[in-house]
Amino acid sequence: MTISKISPFAPKSFAKMPRLMGVEIATVASGMKYKNRDDLLLIVFSPGTTVAGVFTKSSTAAISVHLTEKVVEKGHGRCLLVNAGIANAFTGLKGKQSANSIISSLSKISGLPEGSIMMASTGVIGELLDDKIVNTHIENLWNSRGKSNWYQAASAIKTTDTYAKGASQTIEFDGQKVNICGIAKGSGMIAPNMATMLSFIVTDAKIDKPLLQNMLLTINQKSFNSITVDSDTSTNDMVLVAATGSSNVSILSQDIKLNKFISAFQKVMVELAHQIVKDGEGASKFITINVTGAVSDKSAHTIAKTIANSPLVKTAIAGEDANWGRIVMAIGKSAEPVKTDLVTIHIGGILVALNGQKSDLYDELQIEKHIKSDSITIDVDLQMQGGSATVWTCDLTHEYISINADYRS
Question: Staple partner for 229: which of 74, 156, 190, 215, CB 3.0–4.6 Å?
Fold first, then answer.
């Protein structure tokens, strides 16, 4: 399909991202789904690279998810091949054979063990990935490694995305620099469950697998797992992190460098998560939902997600209608512990409801002014205990329907 317009939140330029030692990137156009654009990405990592990952919990997960999970379980990966346009999910034995054929071909040309090769696919579910087409480009990809940059990599994995997504952080330890670079794709079918769309993050720090995996799980919950566009979890979601160690800076669990690294790592993942929401299919509003005073952080997260996923809340915001009763509805349907007489709501910092009823100070004109802006904030205080969470989403417009009604054409 053709995307009719670029997101109003699209950045003026792609993020400045350094080339990392121990990482080689190549992209190529296969012509499988798209014309005149690259749709195959190869990232090659130096020996000794550790990898961590989180994956979709969909019970109809794609073969690429299962194959890559096995590599990540071992903790070491040497390269990643990504295709855009065809999900190769729900394609049965033929889909497995196709994926295995591609990995075998890449192994033979690269000399890398099949068990060190990761794979990711994104696109239309039910369509078979043509291994014959992909295999004709494997040698060119391998020989071209190192010739492409992060922007080309981020562009090659797009489907309905209207812009390439990238983020990076550079931190310094005793005069030695450590870089973290990440790319992502995602625009629709966004309601992560342990993972998200596709995101690939690389650091030149040296980090053992258990620590890397633990950091990813923790930060993922506060970034990618705290976004939603349309409440639909993809069959192909994954987030992969690779630590090449090429900077010769080690990050250890009992190390003064750890918190500084975690902070930079989280900034990269949150920025990528925000970019995905801001490129939500047809999105015109970026919405932040803060829930406090819940019985637990988990409960707060569930309530915030329920508000964020409500079609009625999202369409009201799209129509710039200050119908805050829909927020109340969403809080109630979350099935989480709530005391109605304590619920307090602010929109754009303006008091709307206090202790279970409309505030005497309620001023709809002020609310409407905020609703007309492109960044909306909803604060819900349950005033029960100390649980809190933040979730980011976007509005639901006619453009979302247009894109998805025409997705396969």
Answer: 190
Cα angle, residue 381 at apex, residues 379 and 386 outer, rounded to 5°: 120
Helix (H/G/I), strand (E/B), else coil: 32? coil
Each residue of 196-224: pLDDT tens digit? 689 999 999 999 999 999 999 999 999 99
Residues of the chain with CATH 3.60.70.12: 23-278
How do 117-124 and 79-86 pair as beta strands?
parallel
Q: How far apart are CA 168 and CA 16, in angstroms?
A: 8
- Report d(CA 200, CA 205) in Å as an integer: 15
* Better-scored residue on pLDDT, 300 or 409: 300
CATH number, domain 23-278, options 3.60.70.12, 3.40.640.10, 1.10.10.10, 3.30.70.20: 3.60.70.12
CA dist 401 → 113, 125, 215, 280, 310 (Å): 44, 18, 37, 12, 16
CA 336/CA 356 separation, integer angstroms: 16
Mean pLDDT on 290-294: 98
Among 27, 196, 292, 393, the one annotated catalytic? 196
- Give ranges for CATH 3.10.20.340 in the chain: 286-405
CA dihedral 4, 6, 9, 13 (to 10 degrees): 170
Active site residue 196: yes
Query: What is d(CA 32, CA 96) in angstroms, rounded to the nearest whole number?
Result: 18
Superfamily the domain 286-405 falls into: ArgJ beta chain, C-terminal domain (3.10.20.340)
Which DSSP string do the residues of 188-223 spell out, in sequence order? SS---SSS-SEEEEEESSB--HHHHHHHHHHHHHTT
Phi and psi at 323, nearest 5°, equal: -90, 75
* 261 burial level (CB within 10 Å; 0-12, 13-18, 19+): buried
Q: Note the pTM of the prediction, 2 decimals.
A: 0.95
Q: How far apart are CA 200 and CA 43, in angstroms?
A: 10
Say how many CA atoms lie within 13 Å of 227 toward its Cβ: 27
Phi, psi for residue 32 in degrees, rounded to 5: -65, -45
Beta 344-347 vs 286-294: how paired, if at all? unpaired
What is the rounded distance in angstroms from the CA atom of residue 314 to the CA atom of residue 229?
10
Whether the per-residue pLDDT at 31 is higher than 90: the answer is yes
Q: What is the pLDDT of residue 2?
A: 47
Report the distance separating Cα 185 and Cα 163, nearest Å: 9
Whether residue 408 is predicted with pLDDT greater than 80 in this model: the reply is: no
Q: How many residues would you count in the chain?
A: 409
